[in-house]
Structures
1.
Amino acid sequence: MAQTIVSNANQTVLEAVAPHYWEQACTELMKNDRIMRKLIPKFGSGFLMTRGDPFVTLARSIVGQQISVSAAQAVWDRVVLASKKKVNPKNILALTVEELRAAGLSGRKVEYIQDLAEHFISGRLHANQWQEMDDESVIKELSEIRGIGRWTAEMFLIFNLTRPNILPLDDIGLIKAISLSYFSGEPVSRHEAREVAANWAPWRTVATWYLWRSIDPIPVEY
């Protein structure tokens, strides 16, 4: 399953391919969960996409912390322009604090994205080993970077490494979607969300992606 997309940031045409497990996951989720049986056909033409660049995925996750998807995209587009349409550690560190702030980043997020760039340039990260490392080991290493906590690390596992069974319980959008789809809009605790998600294993990433789509038809990307 593949489709051609155009990146808003740099107008580069990309060929996107679904994760190898996507079709099997959708089949099993629809079989095991009544809500997924409705959601997946509704948004069945899409799938999780990765940009393949670890730095870009992590930088986008930092930009997206605690703001809406649309606001995060607007800020990211300005960061891309400031970086001469090539976001990489070298170009980020070449920008001044003022330039990054002008793009829409808070002072704290400027510190975070600069620290991220320094980690990549210094070689302190084992980026070439992440594919082979288990989920918790990747989360532990990423959490040593300023501004990257469990939520950001989980976004990386989903959007860069496309791990199939990630459940980001700190994600406001996921909790909202579970509330609307499973609890008629009533508040949902982490425990209740985890209980609902037990029915999705080992495809919790896929279920999360469809629940995100249920509240925002534009696919989430990092």
2.
Amino acid sequence: MADVGVSGFRRGWQIGKAGKGLTGALVLVAFWEMLRLSGMVDPRDLPSVFAILRSFTLQLANGNLVLAALQTLLSWVMGMAVALVFGTALGILLALVPWLERTSRPTLEFLRPIPSVALIPVALMALGIGVTMQVSLITFASIWPILFAARQGVEAIDPRYFDVGRVWGLGQAGRILRIVLPAALPSIATGTRIAASVALALSITVEMLTGRPGLGAVLQAARLSGQTAEMWAVVFCAGLMGQGINMVFLRIERALFPWSGEHLV
């Protein structure tokens, strides 16, 4: 009976959460239409929600939006993969080697606030307009949440675990594989989820400013040609992609780390 009650509570909570999300979406649609009809903004710049959805459906049907989304996702995946490997490794290294962390801190604090968009001209001159340039910028933008999450996760490990590892005779590699990584994975997962949104935004921005194939290029082409409904349809697609990526990462976190405080509710 207790299990049935808990299951019913969870189902009711999920339905209530979905209902709140739907209500929020309807409020946003109503606000959009009120703003469009109020005359405060030129209606040509704010097409109706119906026109945007119609354009979105047509672009999906002809395959243009699907192809652009896949091109954006490809660069996103490559940039995220590089950022995950190097961010995790560097974060763990900095947490385990205090003198290295102190030495590198000024450099990291200098590099972290630099907007990745500001580096696009430098990347174009150094790497050209190819995929290497785009992946490098995505990596630079997304590595920081992963790096600092990994470092924080390692620093939060109870020192007694390392004492137990020494008693078991674990070497440095054994302690990293059997103590550090398992304990820090929830923090790394959260940092990766945050980095995923940053990487997607940067990928689309690079495509807009450089003409690289993807959603950003389609968005820029629609803007320059005055096709506002098509432009907003691409924006809508980007929002759906971002929401979908975030939901996938959340589900993975909840499945792998149900004990994490962020997922107890």
3.
Amino acid sequence: MPAEQQTITAGEYIIHHLTQWTSSPRLGVVQFNIVDIDSIIFAVGLGLLACFLLWRVAKSMTSGVPGRMQAAVEFLVEFVDEQARGIVRNAKSREFVAPLAFIAFIWIVMMNAMDLLPVDLLPRLWQGAGAMAGHDPEHMYLRVVPTADLSIALGMSITILLLSLYYGIKVKGLGGWVHELFTAPFGNHFLLWPLNFAMQLLEYLAKTLSHGMRLFGNLYAEEILFMIIALMGAAGLSNLTGWALFFGNIVAGLAWSIFSMLIIVLQGFIFMMLTLVYIGQAHDHH
């Protein structure tokens, strides 16, 4: 049930839950001097947790009959390695790219899975802690799904862009990479150089934006739907004739949670595969 249901409207409730805990008040849509503290904390914390769990599995691995966790990790490692072999042809590059894709998948799935927690659980705890410390709980904000933050999703996709540029220069040489930048895809005629360059920049921009926006958009929409379902349950409990809404909230919440499990894993898989594809394309000569 929404914590603020008796003091704010449904729209205000959603806006409050979509407001980040930032380093300073945000005055515009894009401000590079502002840090979303909650997204950084949860993203880094979950990344460290993923590394710790994988380290524990690696430390306890046996050559005999594997446990469930070891079997699951081995299956994922073999699956990602197989995909990397088919996309990234350079064996030396795969030594870094395959583990990168693997940890990206695990990390994104863990960040996405935060959406399965009750909508008000961590924000209520955070507001309670703030109230005990003397702060106004109405201005205590906390978002717990890092991938529903555009800065996190685009930050990850920009990282993949930089890696693609690095491998493109490493494999082709700086001269070869610049030559390709001006001669592909339409040819080496000097009149086509501006068009080729514009198309290359557009391709890099489109791949990077779509890579991050796809992850962000799906998780942001999922977060909104969970809030709407929570509001439906609150509306049902607010009057004696609204119990149908309350039970509808339970059914809708359960159904959406089950469907969300597919989205959580699928978005991690898509990001991982596109990471391999974009870095693999950086190795190709045109």
4.
Amino acid sequence: MSGPRFGSKGESSLRRQIEAIQRKRMVREQVVDLNDFRNLRKELQAPTILVVDDEEIMRNAMKRILENEGYKVILAEDAMALSKVLEHTQLDLILLDINLPWVDGIELCTMLKRHPVLRLVPLILCSGRRGKEDVERGFEAGCDDYITKPFELESMSHAVSKALKREQA
């Protein structure tokens, strides 16, 4: 035995009642705040930058600087953390410290620049090493730019925007 049947009149009446309830709820609730939508859209469109540095203070400082400039920032403390990030995140830029445990930044840069997909991601080496031979080793490994620590905010900002523009071109 089947349940009660509504004729077309009963079904349309029920449908109208449901639609009326939904309209009332939508009027009462703020469905989408335009500012929240704009901020979310901006965040979704913001370039994603991975900062790899074994010093927590430096990672967090770089994160604050880059986020203030509108970038989405992900942090990693070493090559293992970097590999986990790469499994599930598309990156627009990598800022890589040279002095890392296990695998140093030069070796890591070489590996990343040999990878068929990751070689296209701009990579900036960041280091306290200022010697000519250190800088040359960085560029030989394939980095797109080399900035020295402690860095001026403007020089880091300039290097990041320049690398991202090159990537988009």
